Each structure stands twice: as C-alpha cells, then as structure tokens.
Amino acid sequence: MTQQSSILDELNDRSREVFRRVVEGYLDSGEPVGSRSLTRLMSEKVSAATIRNVMQDLEYLGLLNSPHISAGRVPTQQGLRMFVDGLLEVGDLQGNDRDLLDATISDNGADVTALLDRIGSALSGATRGASLVLAPKREAPIKHIEFVGLGHDRALVVLVFADGHVENRIFHPPAGQTPSSMREAANFLNALIEGKTLSDVRSVMREEIKARRQEIDTLAQELIDSGLAVWDGDGNNYERLIVRGRANLLGGDAGEEDLDLIRELFDDLERKRDIAEFLELAEGGEGVRIFIGSENKLFSLSGSSLVVSPYMNADRKIIGAVGVIGPTRLNYGRIVPIVDYTAQLVGRMISDRS
C-alpha cells in the first residue's frame, strides 16, 4: 500500500468529501475553493467553520494548500496525485470526441505521417491542450535512396520504401561533398538495400564499408554515416515527435510566470533533448498513465501534467505513444478516455497498414 492510499483510507467520510469537492472545484474553475461555497455542495448539512477545520487538517496532511491567507484551498501536487489514483471518476468517451478522432483516419490512402499529424491536431482540439504523438520507426524494406545537395552545408536524403512510402529529410553533410560523391554514396547504398530495412542496412553497411574500404572514398563514407544518422539511433527519436496545439497552452488567462514556464517547456520540446524518455514513460505498462508536475523529468519545468498512453502494432509490441500536456488542473476524467481511445485508434491504423 502506498503512503497516499494509506492517507486516503484514514480519512473519514466528511474529510474525503471535502477533499474531493475542493479538487473537483479547482479542476473545474482553476480558482481556490472556499468553505462557504462548499456548504452548498456537501451531502450533509455542515457549517462553514466545520469545513474550514477539515480543510486545515487536509492542509496539515499536505493534500491542500492556501495560496493566500484569506482565500480558499487548492490541491497540492500530492493531493492531485492522490485524487487521480483514488477518487478520479473517468467518464465515457463523448460521441462528438469519438467522431472528431475517427474522421482523421477516414482517408485510408493518406501517408502515415500525415495521418498522425492530423490525429495530433484532432487530439489537441478535443482536449484544448498540446498533443504529443511519437511516430513509430519506419521498418518497411527500402527500395531506393538518393542524396541531393541543397547548398554547401545542407543536403536532402530521399528514402523510397517498398510499400510506396517516401520520406524526405534535410541533414548537414560533412564538408567537401560534391555531386559525384553523393551519387557514389547513393549507388553504394542502393546496391545493398534491396529488401532490407533501415536497421538492417546500417549493420550491413558497416561490414561492406570495412570490406570495400578502398573502393569508396572517405567523403562518401562520411556522407553515408551522416545521411542514415537522420533516421537511426538518437536522430531517429528526435525526428519522430509531432507536437500540436502549442497555442492552447500559451493563451488563456495564465500568469506571466506560468507562460515563461510553458515557453521553456516548448523550447525543450523543440530541442528534442529528452524525446526518447517520452516513449519510456509510456512503456511502463499498457493503458493510460498520468504524470503530474515534477513527477517526470521531461515536463517538470512547466508545472504541467502529462496524460500519455502507448500504442501497439499487430504483434502487441509498443511502437509509439500519444499524449496530452496541459496545466495540472486538466479535466482528467474527460481526457483519460480521449487519450486511451486515440492510442487504440493509432494502433489499429498501424496494424491495418502493416
């Protein structure tokens, strides 16, 4: 039994109701909840003075906090955690939310990346938060690869997969590349990639370069390494995160300090420093997980909450995740089923296409 569940079990019925109504009122309005307003909501007739005494006890336990001396109470991070784990009532997915999400995958011929982008936008719209979609690694066999120079420090690598999917990514090639060395690198790879995935190519490529070191110049070797690094290893994770709905967090009535924290969050996201951890958060088990405030390193700076769920392929292997980030006073009861359904929707879409 956790410490939080033990505290919840020790509360009497009146304390539990006061705690639950304070949290629900705060999540609904974002404002501190006072004793006088609770007198009209309690299931038994009780005075404001009695409720204030209960609130003081809950504050002593670390579950509530008073932002100002004369104001009502708001839940602490510990209090929100206890509410989410022990008292949260998760509602059913609303029909209009389901229709909005279902409509994003109505175009079966669309590119997977485009569909995931649309799903992220729909998820952001439905929750009024920022959505995060971690796309799966592309493991279809490759049909063709090509490098195209865009300037002295930029190049485009084009991957054509056997299933018809095409990916274009810009990267920074090593200095000194020429059109000739790019063609040589592409020819070298195209001779290897038939029927192989990107993961296969990387290991085969290393062996081939080692065996044919004299047949390919140093610049082309460096180009191959730079080009494939866009998809493999750390670079792959950095390219896989789709973020939509930033304006939902930057608008509204947030204070200047809150806005600074939110901007810092998105700066972190745009740098993609800890994106691999996003998937690790989701891989802790099936179903929706909720991280509040500083409970996870990725979003601790923002003082925000993350509701995240992994999605799986046809082999029941976790290959990505979807989530919503917003203020700690998220409507968890509504957002949890939305995130859960979105994860199932993405999983089915990926499975159907594999």
TrEMBL record:
Which residue windows are transmembrane per the record? none
User: Which is an annotated Pfam family here?
Assistant: HrcA
The record places domain Heat-inducible transcription repressor HrcA C-terminal at 115-336
Name the GO terms of the biological process aspect. Answer: negative regulation of DNA-templated transcription
Q: What is the superkingdom listed in this entry's lineage?
A: Bacteria
Which InterPro entries does the record cross-reference, listed alphabetically?
GAF-like_dom_sf, HrcA, HrcA_C, WH-like_DNA-bd_sf, WH_DNA-bd_sf, WHTH_transcript_rep_HrcA_IDD
> Annotated Gene Ontology MF terms?
DNA binding
Assigned keywords, A-Z: Repressor, Stress response, Transcription, Transcription regulation
| Transcription regulation listed as a keyword | yes
Q: Which SUPFAM superfamilies match?
A: GAF domain-like, Winged helix' DNA-binding domain
HAMAP family recorded for this chain? HrcA
Tell me the protein family, please.
Belongs to the HrcA family.
Q: What does this protein do?
A: Negative regulator of class I heat shock genes (grpE-dnaK-dnaJ and groELS operons). Prevents heat-shock induction of these operons.
**What protein does this entry describe?**
Heat-inducible transcription repressor HrcA
